[in-house]
Amino acid sequence: MSPKLRLRDGTAQLGRRLPPAAAEQGAADQVPAAAEGVRGVQSSTTTSNLQNLVDQARNLILSNTDDLRPCGAPALALLPHRPLPVLKLAHTKLHAYPWTAVPYHWRCLYTDAAILHALSLIGEGDTLPEAIKHLDHAIIIAGAPRRLSLIHRLLSSLPSPPLPDSLSALTTWPPQPHKPGTPGEPTLRFPIPRLQLPPTSITPSHLTRPVILTNLLASWPALTNWSNPSYILRHTHSGLRHVPIELGRAYTDAGWGQRILPLREFLELYILSSHSGREIAYLAQHDLLLQLPELSEDIALPGFITDAGRPVAVNVWFGPEGTVSPLHTDPRDNVFAQVVGRKYVRLYPPGADVLPRGVEAGGVDMGNTSRVEVEAVDGGEELGEEERRRWAEGAGREGWVEAVVEAGECLVIPKGWWHYVRSLETSWSVSFWWG
């Protein structure tokens, strides 16, 4: 939901490093660096620095409310003294529009009210988790216009509570029991070719059809760091940071929903649980590196990607075994980097007759998503009898290819290719939409 991170040129040999997200914010939310505290157990000096930062942040927000004037005088009058009711008002307004049509001033009001409410909680007993929640929600729900680097500075100044022994001792993602009634290990019939080329030798001619690049990620620290649960927890205030989660196997399923919850809760309920009947949950297509810029140090933008005047969209995917992205197509070229774990991917060429959906209830255009259940022989229950017969016979799906993408590999998905993705174990992935 939040704005996409624009990537800038860098100097890494095997790719371009992702820049700090604060560079995108300009001067609108800059607070002197001297006010920044130190993460960890607070000393009296750190407490003083944090209070200075809180005071400066509050003054910054209230010193110029021009962007908020369309929200009305009553909201502006209430904002300095009672930001929580203003936050609730802004939340209602955000949900009164399609996301792309939300007026800018309501996004600004939500962000400023969330920060002011969080500032009122900092230093007040056991309210640290609640303060972190509101700062994260400003990014996830409103996109934090004008305030992203301010939020990053506030969060980096807050202490991290100690991890429970059960979590601090984790060094790998534990294996999960296979969920009954779901597909198992796939048998490949038409494997996607693999190329082992030096990154500097990759040219546009290599990217016109699906291909797996096997050594593009060799320099990524994420291959090691993101395999370690305690590393992720240390970089998320011991898992107190909030993330958006999709609940359900796939977004086309009945009962599918979304929640924003602390990362630690997501891990304990859906990733670390050994219960085979657990509900599937997925951190899917989220610009996590915008929200947690310290993790951007662990990856690099592949050197052959160019933005062509349009920002490269970088999204992170994290979930347990059994998550599914239904057969769909993207509007841009996609380099899909598998960081941890393995995923099964099947692709159909742009001209394949994969029975796309149309405009569904509520006016949502689902034309980029197929009605086909890819791993069902007859295409699944959403197809009519004749459609199932034709699908089972192979009509309309000539030219499909597939692969199990291993950790450390990249799959090139050219624009217009339909693709279906299923995780075979706990996995982290990063997608780069470009061109």
TrEMBL record:
Residue span, JmjC domain: 281-435
Official protein name in the record: Clavaminate synthase-like protein
Cited InterPro entries: Cupin_8, JmjC_dom
Domain of life: Eukaryota
Annotated PROSITE patterns: JMJC
Gene3D superfamilies for this protein: Cupin
